[in-house]
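Long-time lurker, finally posting.

We've been working with NAD(P) transhydrogenase subunit beta (Tsukamurella soli) and I want a structural starting point before designing mutants. I don't trust myself to interpret raw outputs, so I'm hoping someone here can both generate the structure tokens and explain anything notable. Sequence follows.
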Amino acid sequence: MSYAVDILYIAAFALFIYGLSGLTGPKTAVRGNWIAATGMGIAVVATLLSVWNGWHEKGQSAPVINWILIAVGLIVGVALGIPPALKTKMTAMPQLVAMFNGVGGGTVALIAWVEFIESKGFTHVDTDPGQPDVHIIVGSLFAAIIGSVSFWGSLVAFAKLQEILNKKVEKAFVKNAKLFQLANIVLMIVCIAVAIYIGVSSSNTAPTSMIWIVLLLVAAGIMGLFVVFPIGGADMPVVISLLNAMTGLSAAAAGLALNNTAMIVAGMIVGASGTILTNLMAKAMNRSIPAIIFGAFGSGGEAGAAGPGGDQGPVKATSASDAAIQMAYANQVIVVPGYGLAVAQAQHAVKDMASILESKGVPVKYAIHPVAGRMPGHMNVLLAEADVAYDAMKEMDDINDEFSRTDVTIVIGANDVTNPAARNDPSSPIHGMPILNVDQSKSVIVLKRGMSSGYAGIENPLFFQPTTSMLFGDAKKSVDSVIEELKQL
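Top reply, 14 upvotes:
Generated this for you. Predicted structure of NAD(P) transhydrogenase subunit beta:
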């Protein structure tokens, strides 16, 4: 039976990796997800067989209550997981990702806790209580700390993205970031000290040990809250990616403690990919990961409070008719999508507009900034949903040189990633962050509801430059109006 379990695990790992390779493009992403999901299903079956085989080798049968609890857990998980995955709108997908990631981290923390209870101080039930197994100690304690941090941190990320937190309260968190940093240092020391005490303590009584493990989980949970509370919305895509990596690493550590190969491999895949993505996104913002975690940037502050024109001069409004004429006779049109596109659900309308322009001989490309939207790949997913050709989506490094040769660039809800202050203003909080060179286009049309600042809370000089026109209103309605005008040309 053990050989059959090993074969199933190998098959599951192969499907994990093959499915992950399918996520490199929108055409194969759905298939890749199904393949990886099939692999996870096989891994679950293999784990259940492994549990059954373990009891069978002891000449015992697994308690019926165990199988009942497993069945209930599977049913509850399916019932809670499928509906939000089906009904959640694309605008709320980052929140769903944050929530699902948090559930994963919380699960790992609970697994570490259960393993502690079962082994009475992280020792095998089959071994001498006075001889703790080192890999179980280290794996379980690491999983408990990181899993708890990931769970509670993901809840805060969800609350920020869902805008559940009161804005004044959120700004107060950011304003007092240094206090949170000091508290996190203290909490980290507490976690490490408690973990070391649990690992080396000769006391192995269940009540005493239970108090210490609960203290560890609580301290790690508070640290998870305090880590994310002072981080502003502009950094949420990086934070989500980092928390995802942490969940993967904690799952791998729990797998090491449980000697579960599936958890080790799956956890390492998630941890490694999440770490790579976090590093790439941090580089895209020209910031280090410690600066993101401890910098408290992107608070949605007061910088953008000025009304239209502010102290930077007047803004120039345009109409759907003028925008249509400019685009119809352009040598090339570049579309820059942002979170406003997601909120307005304008991706299908933008695709229709692009199709009309292309039928008139005007090439249309899409400029994708690595941190546009609220999660990694947010804009790619939105555009793929509207059947935008993958080849038309250009990464920042591939398209930045084309802006200066482009007649019209249309910006839909993208603010911070098009802000030339990142390049020109050393005093700007985002100075040094690579941006899309939209301001170098011959003409820029910005679709916005009003003159509010972006998620970073700072004004965008792009809106006030002479070559920029503002098309105010709901993005989808504005694009629909442009489409009607294009049809008349």
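Before you design anything, note these points.
The chain is about 60% helix and 5% strand.
The CA atoms of residues 278 and 466 lie 37 Å apart.
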